[in-house]
């Protein structure tokens, strides 16, 4: 348990271990999702022929532009994951907003790498659930 973090319900040094664990896991998942976006961005920038658009989809974008989008979004998502460890309200708000942005980017990226997009979508949905349901259980003293 990070020093200075207490349970909101008791105000004492006791805490809900499950809720804290889920929130910390959400932070770790956000960091991983950010790293995954950064890796996708680097691959798209380094080798724009690696990702192949199989069918004719509505979302057709230049792979190099997507590389920059994933790179920037990945850094922001990872930083939001680190901010979740501070247990601040602003960090939870930013985490939910950036997880939503990550969901939109993964959905639009689906024609290029469908399975990976679904994995990132699932991680982001878990992060939103964990932060909105269990985020209040820990607060910074």
UniProtKB/TrEMBL annotation:
Keyword Nucleotide-binding: no
Spans through the membrane: 20-45, 65-85, 90-109, 115-133
Record's keyword terms, sorted: Membrane, Transmembrane, Transmembrane helix
Domain DUF7144 residue range list: 23-136
Metal-binding listed as a keyword: no
UniProt-recorded name of the protein: DUF7144 domain-containing protein
Organism expressing this protein natively: Nocardioides mesophilus
UniProt lineage: Bacteria, Bacillati, Actinomycetota, Actinomycetes, Propionibacteriales
